[in-house]
Structure formats: C-alpha cells, structure tokens
UniProtKB/TrEMBL annotation:
One BP term from GO: positive regulation of flagellated sperm motility
Highest taxon of source: Eukaryota
Similarity comment: family membership: Belongs to the G-protein coupled receptor 1 family.
GO MF annotations in UniProt: substance K receptor activity
Protein name in UniProt: Substance-K receptor
Transmembrane segments: 46-72, 84-104, 124-142, 163-189, 209-233, 260-280, 300-322
SUPFAM superfamilies linked: Family A G protein-coupled receptor-like
Domain G-protein coupled receptors family 1 profile: 63-319
Keyword tags: Cell membrane, Disulfide bond, G-protein coupled receptor, Glycoprotein, Lipoprotein, Membrane, Palmitate, Receptor, Transducer, Transmembrane, Transmembrane helix
Primary location recorded for the protein, binned into one broad class: membrane
C-alpha cells in the first residue's frame, strides 16, 4: 500500500494519489506555489479522528497479542488452523502498529515528517501484511476443505504449516518490493511528500499494471478461493442429512466443524467489506483523477482508510464471541479485571493436556448409567487409554464415570483421556 501522494513529473503543479496513498490532489492556483497547507484541519476535527484511529490501534494490538498468547501458550490450541490464525493476528497487529498511526498523521495534513527510510517502509510493509493476512485466511479455508471434504487424505503437519507461512511471507515481500524500490521523498513548499516515483509516472503502464495486479492478488483472487472452498464445505456440513442413529461423537464433530467454519466465514466477510470501499476509491481514481480535486475528499479518504484499518481489530472480537476456547482464553488473560470471572470450565478448556468433559445420561428403559464423552481424539486413542483416563479424571477433577470391564467399550460411552 502506498501511503503517499504522487507528483506528476511532467506537470509539477499537479499532485494526485494512487494505490493506496494518502489523500487528495493539491492544485496550485495559476502555477504559483501556495504559502499554506490546504490540508490543515480544525483542531476539533483532528481530535475526533485521533480518537477514532486510537481506538483501532488500542483494540487491535490488545486483541491480537492476546490471541497469539492464547494459541502459543496452550498446547491444546496448537492446531494447523490456529497456526494460521497466529500468522493472521501477527499481520494485523503489525499493520496497526507500523501503518495506521503514521498513515493517519500523513493523511491529516499531507505532510510527511518521518524521513525517506520510513517512507520506503511505509509503502512496503502494508502490502506485505495485507498479503499475509488474506492468504492466511485462504490457507485456513483450504485446510478446512481438505479436513471436511477429503478427511482421509494427509493433513498438513506442524512443520509443513510453518513452511507454508514462510512461503506466504516470501511472496508478500516480493509483491511489495517495487513500492519500496521506487519510494522517494520530495519537498514541495511548504511541505514534504512521500511518493512512489514510477518510471513512466502516475497513470502510466507501470503504475496501473502494478495497482491492478495488487488488487487482484491481495483481494479478488484469495476471496474467490475462499468463496469456492467455503461453499463446498457449507454444502457438505449443512446440505447433508445427519443419520438419526449417528453417535453422540459424530454429532459433536459435525457441530464443532460447523462452528469453526462459521467463525472463519465471518472473519473473511468482515475483511472483504472493510477493504472494499478502499479498493473502489483507488480504482475510480485511476479512471477519473478529478475526484481528488473535491474539497471533501480528504474526509472521505480518512473515513475509508479508517474502515480498512479497522479490519485489524475485529478478528479477536469474532474469535471471542464465536469460539468457546478463545472465549475462555480471553477470560484467563483478563482475569485481573474485577468484572471477569474465570470458571473451572474455562480453566479446563485451556489445559496443556487434552481434557474431556463427562456427562451422565440415563436411559428411560434401563437402570444402568452410560457416560457420554465429548472428545476430539480418535476412537483408537480413546480405547487404548481408557483405564488410566478414567482414573485421572476422578483423581484430578472429582468427576466419576461408570466402571465397566476393561474389555468392553460401549459406543454410547467413550473413554476419558489425559495425556501428559
């Protein structure tokens, strides 16, 4: 993303914007330099925008750092999907920390205060972080597709997942490099601008080709991939009929998969809606640069840029609202707050070992009790550890399950497991 204004070399009196620069065009009257900065805003207006952007930075950094801690500090949370969520959270918190504030300050007055080095970084890193964010979402979509549509095929290992994440960042750096390479700072009295000085200038082949390639690669293409994969997954999870005689374990698996897919679909839709006006703004500017002449365009850009940057703060809120384990993690992280209560169930959700919750059910036609176990492990692992598991649960949590012969495994009562 290019957080800059671009100066046409063939017409020094005209200043325009490109993808994704700061705001409007600075038109100098009669070819004479102005003695002031037309982008100055009243103090009350600056204060309101500062509060709005500060909210993004505070919520995004706090929420995403907490998400990273929840996953990395708890072994139970270290799954393929959650590793990609860590990468997504890291991209979002980096965007909020290194781009939002500086681009906001630049957009306020269209005056660059931070030197050439940070100008290059400012034009380079946002595209890198955005590429990493959306392709982490796409990787989660593909992983869910393989797990649900092709469950017998090999899944990504922890090592393979890290390789995929590294590849995402390598491609992201490669895509963003041209903006870093062509970034310059130029002084146009009374202010300095940070700009990308393309070889054939603004509106030329290089600039337009790059702009459309970026929009295609970091927005349209990954969204298309996620649309297709989640459509197929949704048809599989919601379109089929669950057999009436299916076990409790089967129903629990389907329910858990549906919840994960719902959560990620909400994340993707939120991202797409937040960035859509931003891309439309710069696409329209490519065809009609007169929109940058409008007096209100600075406020329009600040609003559009706020919406785009706000995408970095919504994901932790979505995780907390739609996922029980993340919700337990947030309660645990903010247990120091007087109004946050951490229950025993919350503690069990984030145990470093696998925790099983045992519920007792009684049949109407039988006096014998059956244990209904909610589990995420395979039945082979469960049966192998049955005896030790029940003893551990009774000893640690005071939960009593029905004793039965070791050589009998009831399909309605799967065993409890604790592995250290």
């Amino acid at each position: 993303m290019e957080a800059v204004s671009l100066i046409r070399r063939d017409d020094p009196d005209v200043e325009a914007t490109s993808f994704p620069p700061s705001v409007t065009a600075d038109w100098l009257e009669d070819g004479n330099e102005t003695t002031g900065n037309q982008f100055q805003q009243p103090d009350w207006q600056v204060a309101l925008w500062a509060i709005a952007y500060s909210l993004i930075i505070l919520v995004s950094i706090t929420g995403n750092v907490t998400v990273i801690w929840i996953i990395l500090a708890h072994r139970r949370m270290r799954t393929v999907t959650n590793y990609f969520i860590v990468n997504l959270a890291f991209s979002d918190v980096s965007m909020a920390s290194f781009n939002t504030l500086f681009n906001f300050v630049y957009a306020l007055h269209n005056d660059w205060y931070f030197g050439l080095g940070y100008c290059r970084f400012q034009n380079f890193f946002p595209i890198t972080a955005m590429f990493s964010s959306i392709y982490s979402m796409a990787a989660i979509a593909v992983d869910r597709y393989m797990a649900i549509i092709h469950p017998l095929k090999p899944r990504l290992s922890s090592t393979s997942t890290k390789v995929v994440i590294a590849l995402i960042w390598i491609l992201a750096v490669s895509l963003a490099f041209p903006q870093c390479y062509y970034s310059v700072t130029m002084f146009y009295y009374p202010r300095t601008v940070c700009m990308v000085d393309w070889p054939d200038d603004y509106g030329g082949t290089h600039q337009l080709s790059y702009q459309y390639a970026v929009i295609l690669l970091i927005y349209l293409l990954p969204l298309l991939v996620m649309l297709v994969t989640y459509s197929l997954v949704g048809r599989s999870l919601w379109g089929g009929h669950i057999p009436g005689e299916a076990t409790n374990h089967y129903h629990n698996q389907i329910t858990a998969k549906r919840k994960v897919v719902k959560m990620m679909v909400v994340v993707v839709v939120t991202f797409a809606l937040c960035w859509l006006p931003y891309h439309i703004y710069f696409i329209l500017g490519s065809f009609n640069r007169d929109i940058y002449k409008q007096h209100y365009i600075q406020q329009v850009y600040l609003a559009i840029f706020w919406l785009a940057m706000s995408s970095t703060m919504y994901n932790p809120i979505i995780y907390c609202c739609l996922n029980q384990r993340f919700r337990a993690g947030f309660r645990h992280a903010f247990a120091w707050c007087p109004f946050i209560n951490v229950s025993e169930e919350d503690k069990m959700e984030l145990q470093h070992t696998h925790t099983w919750r045992v519920t007792m059910t009684r049949s109407r036609h039988s006096d014998s009790a059956r244990a209904s176990i909610k589990t995420t492990n395979t039945f082979d692992t469960i049966m192998a550890a049955e005896v030790n598991a029940e003893r551990d649960v009774t000893k640690k949590y005071g939960v009593h399950s029905v004793k039965r012969p070791e050589n009998m495994i009831s399909s309605a009562a799967k065993p409890v497991q604790h592995t250290h």
